[in-house]
Amino acid sequence: MLLRAVIDTNVVYAGLRSRSGASYQILDALERHLWTLVLSNTVLTEYEEILKREAPAIGITNDRADLLLDSLCLHADKRLTSETWMPVLSDPDDEAFVQLAFESKADHLVSFNIAHLAPARALGINLLAPKEFLKILRA
After folding, report:
1. Contact 15/26 with Cβ under 8 angstroms?
2. Which top CATH class is 4-138?
3. What is the DSSP string of 6-48?
4. Could you give the CA distance from residue 102 to residue 128 in angstroms, rounded to a whole number?
5. End-to-end distance of the chain based on CA atoms, in angstroms?
6. CA–CA separation, 126 vs 122, rounded Å?
7. What pTM, to 2 d.p., does this model score?
8. pLDDT tens for residues 84-136?
9. What are the backbone angles phi and psi of residue 43, rounded to the nearest 5°?
10. Span 63-85, pLDDT tens digits
11. For 9-30, how does the pLDDT look when each residue is reduced to its tens digit (9 = 90+)?
């Protein structure tokens, strides 16, 4: 069975901005069906907002951003999240990632903001930096 992970927007952004880092390799591994992205509408909306806002910085058009988002959806395990979630983080923008990881029982939550997401560990969520997740994918 493939690993299932929730990926923070900062990892998606980094993977599209540069082809030299772990984030790009994680996205490449997703495209090659080596792991499964867990996705909710809320997380997808966050991806869309950031990718379209930052499209010029990563050298893509909004149409290309839509194609990339479609591709992520194509390979994703799509989940609905509950409306009764009790926040555990100080930043409400990151809450959707923790909620999705917890409610979907994802294997990992991958982010560059491990310290900021640390309260999620109390819920049993395995937080990993992109380099750590990539090591697991390569094992």
Report:
1. yes
2. alpha beta
3. EE-HHHHHHHHH-SSSHHHHHHHHHHTTSSEEEE-HHHHHHHH
4. 14
5. 14
6. 10
7. 0.95
8. 999 999 888 899 999 999 999 999 999 999 999 999 999 999 999 999 999 99
9. -65, -40
10. 999 999 999 999 899 999 999 99
11. 999 999 999 999 999 999 999 9
The strand pairing partners of 47, in sequence order, are none
Write out the two tokens for 49: 């907002």
Joined tokens for residue 132: 């750590």
Angle between helices 41-53 and 62-74 (to 10 degrees): 150
Q: Provide CB contacts within 8 A for 14, sequence distance 6+.
A: 21, 23, 24, 112, 130
Check residue 121 and report its DSSP letter: G
Interatomic CA distance for residues 19 and 5, integer angstroms: 21
CB 98 within 8 A of CB 109: yes
| Angstrom distance (rounded) from CA 68 to CA 4 | 19
Spatial separation of the C-alpha atoms in residues 96 and 56, rounded to whole Å: 26
